[in-house]
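The following block was generated as part of the benchmark described in Methods. Ligand: nicotinamide-adenine-dinucleotide.
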Amino acid sequence: MIFGATGDLAKRKLFPSLYRLFERGRLEKFAVIGVARRTLDNDDFQQSVKDSVLSALGEKGNLDEFVSHFYYQAHDVADSSSYTSLRKFANQIDENYQLDGNRIFYLAMAPEFFGPIALHLKSDGLTEVKGYKRLVIEKPFGHDLESAKELNKQIRSAFSEKEVYRIDHYLGKEMVRNIEVIRFANAIFEPLWNNKYISNIQITSSETLGVEERGRYYETSGALRDMLQNHMMQMVALLAMEPPIKLTTDEIRSEKVRVFRALRTIEGDKVNDYFVRGQYGEGTIGGKKAPKYRDEPMVDKESNTETFVAGKIKIDNFRWAGVPFYIRTGKRMAAKSTKIVVQFKDIPMNLYYQTEKMLNPNLLVIHIQPEEGITLHLNAKKAGGHLDAQEVKLSFANTGSNAMNTPEGYEKLLYDCMRGDATNFTHWDEVAYSWAFVDKISEVWENSKADSFPNYQSGTMGPKAADELLEKDGYFWWPVGDLEVDICK
Ligand code: NAD
């Protein structure tokens, strides 16, 4: 059951992902009930599902058969009688398709509806099923720890923790899932993955787009809540966790939670030493002029909302003591790119100093999007030279080897949910710890106006202060290079 079936998320992501699962033979006995406010008949709804699959994938295949599994119910989320008729309809569909009472509720709706819908699903009997019942919810999960707790309470009164699948679509990305394999399946990395050999880790997630039509929502959120609390913190946890004793959901989650527990709290006076906020001004992107954030639709002319955040995170445990994790994310930046750079420490002595250049440190770059792959930066002898060392890069591009078969994040997550595998969804403990960490920063920023806003030009990599954050530790941000270029070289 998809609540919000006429919305953007359903059309752009969910229907195409379901179609791909269907085409791969991963959906056998299934039916989808689309639920939304608007009055539509089944034919219109099926046509809109067809249109969205065609525009996302351009495929025709078995589309007619696929959409014949889709039904539509107009619904008022606040009205019990809507749920009663939905229950009767769902029971009927269950029987027709012999679904054994297994039911997934996907809430592709604004977050203020999550709690009330979950409560109604229980009180109006939709969760009384013979099979499994699972609730899938999108971000944002609250806007701070308090609101997240309240939301969790409402959801948990209808679903157990094991039945709640909190989507963080970064956890559906191929290369985010690959972090664990790169770390734990390679003898050349695993022994080095600690403060003895790693000097710092940098995670960048930059967008070239501005806030677009989402000004109203973004004004209540900002980069810290919209990106850092969830996606960036999840990547930190995957990079920093101890090897789990088994690859089970519980073991992996508990290792991630241990990372969150070891995060050094950054609060009060310390916040502006460890974190930098930014807001985009005018600039040029791809040859086009871009307006400043404060001139975007539905944005306050004096907005204090950050569209960029960079920070230094410290993990106070034996493995990571002394290693900074630098993270930055923002809108209207110079490139669209999500990348992780693991910088290894310099070797103890440089024998190849002839050029008066320091040797480049070894880097492991994990390209998350848009390109997917890995680049390892090494030093090797310069061809023809005496004994000069130069940097060489070994690159692997996922797209090259797996061709078009890399499934979309949502496709993998929907499939995991159907199989009951919650590993790549966010557990409540992770949500709570990361909100507690982020709340301390937003408390300071909300209570002090950023006089310098706007403080970075559209089309750049953020404010100068973000560079200074690393410079004062003797580092700099590695450029978000292009994997394809590395490979062509
Ligand atoms: P949207 O505004 O496009 O769609 C909202 C849907 O909710 C529509 O189908 C609408 O009919 C339905 N709806 C609204 N009020 C209703 C009511 N009172 N009763 C019944 N139905 C009602 O929103 P969206 O962009 O699809 O986003 C949905 C959720 O997913 C949000 O929580 C958003 O933050 C999250 N999200 C969206 C995207 C995306 O790519 N669009 C990405 C990540 C997260």
